[in-house]
Fold:
Amino acid sequence: MTAIELLLQRQSNPLLTTPAPNKGALEQILTAGMRVPDHACLQPWHFTVITDDGLQRLSDLFVKSSDKQTANLEKIAKMPFRAPMIIVISTEFVEHEKVPKQEQLITAGCTAHAMQMAAYSLGYGAMWRTGAFAYNKKVKQGLSISEQNEIVGFLYIGTPCKEQALKATKGFDNKVSYWR
Structure:
């Protein structure tokens, strides 16, 4: 697969199972995350890799952090088990006169994208998810993410359960203007 084929054919895969990436594949995925555009080389991100018993700990954290009056706790408890590995991407904002927080947030988002592309290129499926728990103060505390930082997303990674039909490519005509 060429780089352009990767970019044009990649799609999220929510149906993931074992095996998770091995140590070598995980190192490649994390290294891809480190190669993103990064103004002033601030590296304003952090990766928390969750596997094995950590998935149960994340499940317990989600349940404990949910609004128990309205939540479906059984569904919430199952969320971390959608894949055998989750990488939580969070910001580590750095004070810098030329690099505002917004730019640092975008850079951290680029790490999630790069790691998702790397996982796909290695034959794994991946799904970048956010949802209410990405914005939940108790979840951030439980993951040792300081109040001033953000969860960019939960990158679920595993082996695809089944091959997906390639989705149609979205047109860009109504999203582009040209200055000449």
